[in-house]
Design a protein that fits this description.
heterotrimer, A mainly alpha (505), B alpha/beta (314), C mainly alpha (165), B: 314 residues, alpha/beta, D-Maltodextrin-Binding Protein, domain 2, 10-stranded mixed β-sheet, 11 helices, globular, C: 165 residues, mainly alpha, 2 domains, 6 helices, 0% strand, flat
Chain lengths: 505, 314, 165
């Protein structure tokens, strides 16, 4: 039987009404838990995995697939509507998505996120099914120096979220670097910047910082404006649905996001957020409407959301073909697969085709179910914004702290939420962009570790960074991307470019 | 009136007796890791076997389990319903982090499972045997890079012990720490490093498919079904088991401790526990009572010595 | 830009100078901390203190840049800030933090809810507090009882669901 026959057979099995129902439950649960700010897909899957144990293998597999995709998708809704990213992969979505929502374009933003996620999930799952063994070979070529170069490239992308002031953008980024120094140094086990406080040894949780900066900081900043003036947030202006121009501006970013997110998700040390950063920067470079970036450009939602979901499927590549759990989510899924008697590894596709294709068929069904669930919900979601401000913000803070408490019920974590919330408020007041500090916290430890690993393997020889062609090319692109705009800005005193750079976060 | 209501609520809360065998298990790590999986497997088995009617798992991640341990010890004095999962990694983490609360602050109940360390090279590597690897290490320790888990963890300790046994200065080993088993495995498969070290289970699928070559294992005797010598066989006196255990709260009475021990023993002896171990590929290394206490003490002493040798603990 | 605005911006921006001071202090703390680290660079030559040192120096340079910008009046104009609502929200978050372990999730989060609503103009605490506690309690039931998320329980939770701790 060929791969295609297996897939068809899997789809036929999965189209049983009862199984479709399980898929729907899985997607609903996954989305419901995934929307909570601070609860990422890893915890969502860990919490909900036991639910699937009670079903027969086919049922639990499909429900599990639903939970996984639902959990990955869930974060984008709160990012767009409430400016509170649920996990690190949806931070970028908040940048443009929330601006759209404030202009009454929350409907199209949610729609492009949902459809983009579907398109990306569909293509990436098919890529997983047919190309996994080849993709994984490519992914293994990536060693520490290549990852370091990838991180440098991702750093460059942050500059596109700097806003109108290089000083304030850089300051925000360096604050992120500074916070990243906190905790045990991975490579030597030395405690840095923790001042003997055990709670600081593991460093600052990205989700805590993101929830504090976005949700708490936002609530404080809006409250500080007082009740003077009318509410600037419009629930719905124009159609809830995407119009023709939205479609034509979305489909290319969806595809580009998919092809950026999938391979990066497949890399053992890639991570979903890197794909979203790169996709955002790409869309900002290619768009025909650069003036809209920073004010709610639909491309800035479509691309990163597609990249996010494509990398979710990409993560399954090393997991299924090598048995490599490359993220916390993947590690939990590995435990889940073992429950179904599926032992991921190099021989999986050969020894256990029914289960693999059953899983892939389940992922396709879950992906479709996600769209079925979310599109009709958009009308309902945007109504959230019509809730009067006192109730809305009280609710946002309720759910933001629920996520933090649920992930780690410690008063210390809540204290950090408060402190960083105040920092986020201060940064908003003085026009500092919020995204770079979070991005700095995510990227800088990865870049530092990979650089030190590369140098340790080469025994201190820095030229290894350039002797790998892949690394050299990526570093070259990064250098160009930094220098060219700088030169242009020097020449034209930045009249055009500062316009392009948009403003605030 | 309000006060009265509050008082009633409080009284109600206090009056509710703690139901017997309602366990809360602390997994002092993030979801997904070995301790979390151990805790969640215990949860499933304890409930399925009817040993406990309700079991909750709580993740208290941080600093190699030392944060969870400290919180557990301080909040559960005398609480017979609280359990914590831990393991060998915790022993090292307590030392390297200079943690204020050690394993003496809890009541160890039993060792549950364990895995031995395995040393591998990529299939394409010119190194064929453990002896050749040791020769290379002796010739130039810096040129042999090792990929393994976190700094000061079991894998790092094993390399330190190996170097010491081979007569190489343990501070000279070129150990590349990775945060997760997966990342380290990818580096080994991609031939980014000379050799890799981790729990045998992490490598089994790769060894079976021929992409990795297993050179040696860190067990006392040869492991059944594993075609590789022990380190002892080749003259390196290194035996190391990465074990996982369950401990109870401090300050328990002897009866309480006996009751918890009996529940854990019932769990370990159950068919569903054995079934879970088989699916997860964990070895049953159940050890309880005085024997476990003695082994724990011996491990703590040995670990302290090697961490000092590597230079991670002063 | 009107003349009046221009004059305001010509004066040194004190808030920006304070930010600069904060950045310099943060940078100095990082440098001080990294000086204490053992040099365990091993074969890489880049030890645990290297990156913090670069970041620390970077922060201090940014502090200098910020001072220059502040003296030039380069900082954007800020909307008027009302301190009272901000303090209400801080009080809410602090209240939740303090009450969480003692009073359980619902009561603690109810307090946060009510005080946040207060910050946005719903002054009637006898209405918002019960509403907040009720909503938090429903959330607690859904997430801790149905989804097995571990949320701290207090008297209210024990009253309905029993069980100690």
């Amino acid at each position: 039987m060929s791969a295609f026959d297996f897939l068809l057979q899997g789809l036929a099995t999965a189209s049983d009404p009862m199984l479709l129902f399980y898929a729907l439950i899985g997607v609903t649960l996954g989305t419901a838990v995934g929307v909570l700010p601070g609860i990422g897909p890893a915890l969502t899957v860990a919490l909900l995995l036991p639910v699937t144990y009670r079903l027969d293998p086919a049922g639990s597999l499909i429900m599990f697939a639903g939970i996984y995709y639902g959990g990955m998708y869930g974060g984008s809704t709160t990012s767009i509507l409430l400016n509170t990213p649920g996990e690190s992969a949806s931070i970028i979505t908040a940048l443009e998505g929330n601006k759209m929502a404030r202009k009454g374009r929350g409907g199209p933003a949610l729609a492009t996120a949902a459809i983009g996620s579907f398109v990306a999930g569909l293509i990436a799952t098919l890529l997983l099914a047919f190309l996994a063994p080849h993709v994984v070979k490519l992914a293994l070529v990536f060693g520490p120096r290549e990852y370091f170069a990838l991180m440098v490239l991702a750093f460059v992308t942050v500059s596109s979220a700097f806003g109108d002031s290089t000083l304030r953008g850089l300051t925000s980024l360096f604050l992120g670097f500074g916070l990243a120094c906190v905790g045990i140094d991975q490579l030597t086990g030395q405690a840095r910047m923790s001042f003997g406080v055990p709670d600081l040894l593991d460093g600052i949780e990205v989700t805590t910082l993101a929830v504090a900066m976005f949700a708490v900081g936002e609530a404080l900043a809006i409250a500080a404006l007082g009740n003077t003036g009318e509410d600037k947030v419009h629930a719905v202006k124009g159609s809830v649905w995407m119009n023709r121009s939205d479609w034509s501006r979305s489909w290319k970013p969806w595809l580009r996001g998919t092809f950026i997110g999938f391979p990066i998700g497949a890399m053992p040390a890639g991570g979903a957020e890197i794909g979203t950063f790169l996709s955002y920067a790409t869309e900002k470079k290619l768009t025909k409407h650069p003036e809209e970036f920073g004010h709610g450009a639909i491309e800035g939602v479509a691309g990163p959301e597609a990249a996010n979901n494509a990398s979710a499927a990409g993560t399954l590549v090393p997991l299924l073909t090598l048995g490599l759990p490359t993220t916390a989510t993947a590690a939990i899924m590995l435990a889940g697969f073992q429950q179904f008697g599926l032992q991921p590894g190099p021989l999986l596709f050969a020894t256990n085709p029914e289960l693999v294709w059953g899983l892939i068929a389940s992922l396709l069904i879950a992906n479709a179910m996600l769209l079925v669930l979310n599109l009709p919900m958009i009308g309902l979601w945007v109504k959230l914004l019509t809730i009067p401000k006192p109730w809305l913000y009280a609710g946002i803070l309720l759910f933001a702290t629920l996520g933090t408490i649920g992930a780690n019920p410690s008063t210390f974590e809540l204290g950090m939420l408060l402190v960083f919330g105040l920092v986020g408020y201060g940064m908003r007041v003085f026009g500092y962009p919020i995204a770079p500090i979070v991005v700095g916290l995510i990227l800088s430890p990865m870049a530092e570790q990979q650089l030190r690993r590369a140098l340790s393997i080469s025994q201190g020889d820095w030229t290894v960074l350039l002797t790998s062609p892949i690394a050299a090319v990526m570093l070259g692109i990064a250098a160009l991307a930094l220098i060219v705009p700088l030169v242009m800005r020097m020449r034209g005193r930045g009249a055009v470019l500062s316009q392009l750079a948009g403003d605030e976060d | 009136m309000k006060k009265l209501m509050l008082a009633t609520i409080l009284a109600g809360a206090v009056a509710l007796p703690a139901m017997a065998a309602d366990y809360t298990i602390i997994a002092p790590a993030n979801p997904g890791g070995g301790w979390d999986q151990t805790a969640r497997t215990m949860q499933a088995v304890l409930q399925d076997e009817g040993i406990s009617s309700s079991v909750q798992v709580q993740n208290v991640p941080g600093a190699g389990g030392t944060i969870g341990l400290a919180q557990f010890a301080s909040q559960n004095e005398g609480n017979a319903n609280a359990l914590i999962v831990g393991g060998y990694v915790m022993v090292g983490a307590i030392l390297t982090n200079n943690a204020p609360v050690g394993l003496d602050a809890v009541t160890p109940i039993a060792r549950l499972t364990g895995e031995y360390e395995a040393i591998v090279v990529p299939a394409a590597s010119p190194i064929q045997t453990i002896e050749e690897l040791v020769e290379a290490l002796k010739a130039d320790p810096g040129a042999v890079s090792w990929a393994g888990g976190s700094a000061g963890g079991t894998d790092h300790i094993a390399v330190g012990l190996l170097a010491k046994a081979a007569g190489v200065d343990p501070t000279k080993i070129n150990y590349i720490a990775y945060s997760g088993g997966g990342e380290a495995l990818a580096a080994i498969l991609g031939s980014q490093v000379t050799a890799g070290i981790s729990s045998l289970g992490e490598f089994v699928a790769q060894i079976d498919s021929g992409t990795l070559r297993l050179l040696a294992v860190s067990s006392e005797e040869r492991i059944e079904g594993v075609d590789a010598p022990t380190l002892k066989e080749v003259g390196l006196d290194v035996v190391l088991q990465n074990w996982r255990m369950v401990a109870a709260a401090p300050g328990l009475s002897d009866e309480q401790k006996a009751a918890v021990s009996a529940d854990i023993e019932a769990m370990v002896k159950s068919a569903s526990w054995q079934e879970q171990l088989a699916t997860k590929g964990w070895a049953d290394t159940y050890l309880a009572g005085a024997e476990f206490d003695a082994q724990l003490a011996a491990d703590i002493t040995a670990t302290e010595t090697v961490l000092k040798d590597i230079g991670l603990v002063k | 830009m009107s003349l009046k605005q221009y004059e305001i911006q010509r004066r040194p921006d004190w808030a920006a100078l304070i930010i600069a001071a904060g950045l310099a202090v943060f940078g100095a703390v990082i440098l001080w901390d990294s000086a204490r680290l053992a040099d365990l660079g091993g074969y890489s030559g880049v030890g645990p203190g290297t990156v913090p040192r670069v970041v620390g120096i970077g922060l201090i340079l940014l502090a200098v840049w910020t001072v220059a910008a502040a003296l030039r009046g380069d900082f954007p104009e800020r909307p008027r800030q009302q301190p009272a609502p901000v303090l209400w929200i801080i009080a809410g978050l602090a209240g939740q933090l303090i009450l969480l372990k003692i009073a359980g999730f619902s009561i603690a989060t109810g307090v946060l809810f009510a005080l946040t609503a207060r910050a946005f103009g719903k002054r009637n605490l006898t209405l918002t507090l019960p509403v907040g506690i009720a909503i938090s309690f429903v959330v607690w039931i859904v997430f801790s009882q149905l989804l097995m998320l571990n949320l701290p329980a207090g008297p209210l939770e024990h009253l309905f669901f029993g069980g100690a701790r």
